[in-house]
Design a protein that fits this description.
Number of helices: 4
Strand order of the largest sheet: 1-2-3
Oligomer: single chain
Order of helices and strands: EEEHEHEHHE
Helix content: 25-40%
Distance between the termini: 24 Å
Largest sheet: 3 strands, antiparallel
């Protein structure tokens, strides 16, 4: 991740190369960047279960504030599950956690990446469909429409 931004220096946390967490800092600009894989479902092999944290749990642990930016993307690994089951339940948990974060730290900027189509790999040919991706995207937008979050529209 630090190759994208020259000032970032990656910290070696000795974590899984598949799930992280990964952390980089830019002390000159007072930036700390943390990335981690979400909890199940996930299609990454050989990932220690202890390294997988649910998005809502991570949000509950954040202090937030005017210098905090949270970016969430959720839909891809749910594309093989029926909309009315796991995905909506997970979105509801994330919604609750975002609401709590914004109540304790209203200046936190929350960005949510929408679902997208156009995958040109085996995933789309075997598992995915534009129709299901569109349904997941609609559910995501409906869940967060009342909250002061930014939807990054990549549809």
């Amino acid at each position: 991740m630090d190759a994208l931004i020259n000032a970032l220096k990656e910290l070696n946390l000795y974590t899984s190369a598949k799930s992280g967490p990964f952390e980089a800092v830019d002390t000159g600009n007072n930036i700390r960047l943390v990335w981690r894989a979400h909890g199940f479902p996930i299609w990454t092999s050989m990932t220690p279960r202890a390294d997988l944290h649910y998005i809502a749990s991570e949000l509950d642990a954040l202090g937030g504030g005017q210098h905090s930016v949270v970016i969430i993307t959720t839909w891809m690994h749910f594309a093989t599950f029926p909309l009315a089951t796991l995905y909506q339940k997970r979105l509801a948990g994330i919604h609750r956690a975002v609401l709590a974060l914004l109540q304790r730290a209203p200046q936190t900027l929350v960005l949510i990446k929408s679902a997208k189509t156009g995958h040109k790999d085996i995933f789309k040919d075997i598992f995915g469909s534009d129709w299901l991706s569109w349904q997941l995207d609609c559910a995501l937008r409906m869940m967060f429409k009342e909250l002061p979050v930014v939807i990054i529209d990549v549809w």
